[in-house]
Amino acid sequence: MIIYILRHGQAEAQITSDEARKLTQKGFFETEKVLAARLKELANIAAICASPLVRAQQTAQIAQQYFPAIPLQTTEFLIPEADPNQLIDWLYRNNASNQGAILLVSHQPMVGKLLGLLCGKPEGFYPMGTSSLAAVEIQTIASGLGELLWLDHAVH
User: Which of 27, 110, 112, 155 has the fewest CB atoms within 10 Å around its CB?
Assistant: First the structure.
């Protein structure tokens, strides 16, 4: 299976709470551009899962516009401070590997930790700026068994 990992687009500065931060116009634009460039590869996704934070939900909704038949699932396992090992366990328990490709929309430090953990690399080995999109091929959902296929970044 392929796990696509997408960091949310650029967000506004924190005014009230981190959870309420919304995407900026640049965040919308860069996310659309990164996704549009990989539409052919993303055509195999069967699920879209996102953090409940506003900026991740908005980023996931941009992806969902390209794939309107795929429902958006929200999970606390994708919040910034979540444990990537718990996310891997959740994906394994939910039999994600038998459902086809999955798109995960999250934040730093989760995306950097998850990408490194899946590919057996140290945290921060792969840079994940806003709107960065990675593809990891993995047969069995477990730490260290993934292979990074590609990693795209927004052009700032």
Answer: 155
The 3-state DSSP class for residue 154 equals coil
How much is the pTM? 0.95
In the numeric block, which tokens belong to residue 87?
């996310």
Q: Which residue has the higher pLDDT, 107 or 93?
A: 107
Q: Mind listing the pLDDT tens digit for each residue in 127-156?
A: 999 999 999 999 989 999 999 999 999 986
Give, rounded to a whole angstrom, the gap between the first and last alpha carbons of the chain: 30
Q: How far is CA 117 from the centre of its chain?
A: 14
What's the Cα-to-Cα distance from 109 to each of 115, 140, 143, rounded to whole Å?
A: 10, 23, 17
Query: Is omega for the bond preceding 68 within 30 degrees of 0, making it cis?
Result: no
Question: How far is 109 from 79, CA to CA, in rounded Å?
Answer: 9
Binned at pLDDT 50, 70 and 90, residue 97 comes out as low
